[in-house]
Structure formats: structure tokens, C-alpha cells
Amino acid sequence: MVKEFIAQSPEILPDTFESTWSSPSNIALVKYWGKKEGQIPANPSISFTLDHCATTTRVKFTRKETPGISFDLLFEGEPKPSFKPKIQQFIDRILPYMEFLEGYHLEIDTSNSFPHSSGIASSASGMSALALCLMSLEAALSGAEEDANFYKKASFLARLGSGSACRSLEGPLVSWGQHEHISGSSDLYGTPYRGQLHKTFLDYRDTILLVDKGQKQVSSTVGHGLMHGHPYAEARFEQAHRNLAELLEVLQNGDSRAFIRIVESEALTLHAMMMSSNPYFILMKPNTLEIINKVWDFREKTGSALCFTLDAGANVHLLYPGSEADEVMKFIEDELVDYCEQGQYICDRIGEGAKRR
């Protein structure tokens, strides 16, 4: 239990309350892979907050006489029974910090701005949006402001639903995990990047190439667990600390070549850890590798600052400055779209975080 996040239970609960938040997904530049008990990361990470790929969640709270966890869930207007166990687990984890939730029945209505079958992980955006709705009720009950402490606890709660969700509330960059070069960094919640950000990164884009929209053969939860006893785990954790320290300098000095080297190395290392775990697995597809090689060839020929990164899946995130948008989009249409499932991709950019609706 973390005492600073335990809410005081009010004597009087309002009969009803409603809150709606939209929260984006994020894409990690330095990856976290492996976690400890209690959703604690094995290494620090940092991510770009996205803008368009977001989840909007509305929660209606209705007071009830019998205490206990009670909720209904709609996903894009329809019941989604398969989502309920994860929501139940999330509420069970946060209940010690929000005991007043037992006094309410929750009607949760959530939807994504991107197709659910697109292969874009929605746990970060979904859990952060839900955490913010719950925090709005807590703030209303206590009379607190939606200030830095509000977002800090919301990030803390979101982490208990999905680790990377704690990086989705603010922007344009958020770190998670203790790091000696990041003031206020914590394993318990995300820390917004407060350093100087070079103009090179102020208008970065993320175009997500949908190589495979199917369900992953191995869940991220299982993948994280395979880092326990992994022969290269400690070396990987040390590498993440070093890469994050170097990336912090790059974000200030605007060295795009160093940015590319760190971000692409992090993506490939993430998948190397999967391929060398026991049991081992490969989430990249042949078209993932085709795209990577095309990107390297394009960069060598043009001198572009375009680079790629990967999550724990086959899809490819293309990161590049807004000033190169026309050139990169032409490259995608001419050479990469054929490697995408049904020719689909999503255009996004770095954003500023969640918004109340």
C-alpha cells in the first residue's frame, strides 16, 4: 500500500456522478520488458504520447445500498464480456485506494478512435481513460483540483491496470521507472518530461503500418514474465538505463542520427529478448522485416530522419519530423503499403495527453 494515494472515504456520497475522458495510446522509445510484483517495471522507459489513437470512456456512477464491486461494460455501444475480467482485476487492485467505489454501480461505456481489430494495443489508452474517470469522482468527493497530484495518482492507478497506461495521461514525452537522470522519476507512476525539447522533436509524426491485425500468439503479460530467469535480462536492463540517459541528451541537442540509432536498437532488442527467452517466440512477420529493410534503404538514399520502432507485435511505427511528412507519405504509398494487411495504416503525431470531454 502506498499511503499517499489512499483516499479518505466521504461521509455522504452523491446519488449520481458522470465523467468522460479521452486518453491516447503511446509508443515507447526506450522499451520496458519485464516487470516485478505489483506492476513494477524491471527497467525505466520513455514514450511519445500519441494524439489521434485514443480511447474515450464515459463512466456513470449510481449510488447503491449494498456495498461491493458492481459494473456494466459497453464497448462501442455493445456488451463486451471478454473485457470484464480485466476491468474486474483492475478495480480489485485499486479498491484499497478508492474504497468509496463500493458504494456505486458503474456503467462504463468506452470506444476507440481506431479500429479494435487494427492491432494497436488499446490497454494503455483504455486503462488511463478509466483511471481518469474514477479520479474525477474522487476529486468531486474531496473538492480537490485537477492538478499535478490528480494526474500523479491517476497515473499510479492506470499502472495497476496496464503498466504502459501510466505513460498516456500527459505529453509529449513521459518516462516510467526510476532513473538517476530524471528528477522525480518513480516505478509507481509516469513522470512527464520537463527538460528542454529540441525543435526537431516538436512536430514528430508516427505512421503505424498494420502488418498483422490478428491477435498476438503470446500476450505481453506472458512475455514480461519470461524475463524472469532470462539469460540476458540483467544486461538488457542495464542497456535500457544507458539508452535512456543518452536519449535524454538527444532530446535536448536534436541529434537525429543518435535518436535513430537508439530507437531502432531498442525496438530490435525488445524482439531479440523474445526470441531468446524460454520458451522463445517471434512476433515479427516477414513483411515486418521487408519494411525495416525498405526504411534503411530509403534513409541511405535520401538522408531522411525517418526511423522505425516496434511494440510487442508485427506492426511497424514510422517516426519522422513533420517537415518530412510529404516525402515520407509518398514513400509509404509507393513502397510500403503493399506490406500492410489490406493496405491499411494509421497516421498519428505526438500529442499532449488526455482530455476531459
UniProtKB/TrEMBL annotation:
Q: Which domain of life is it from?
A: Bacteria
Keywords, sorted A to Z: ATP-binding, Lipid biosynthesis, Lipid metabolism, Lyase, Nucleotide-binding
Sequence ranges assigned to domain Mvd1 C-terminal in this UniProt record: 208-336
**Keyword Zinc attributed:** no
The alphabetized list of GO BP terms reads:
isoprenoid biosynthetic process
Q: Carries keyword Transmembrane helix?
A: no
Identify one Pfam family in the record.
MVD-like_N
Ranges of residues in domain Diphosphomevalonate decarboxylase-like N-terminal: 24-181
State a single Gene Ontology molecular function. Answer: carboxy-lyase activity
Among SUPFAM superfamilies, the record links this protein to:
GHMP Kinase, C-terminal domain, Ribosomal protein S5 domain 2-like
Supply the name of the protein. Answer: Diphosphomevalonate decarboxylase
Biological source species: Robertkochia marina
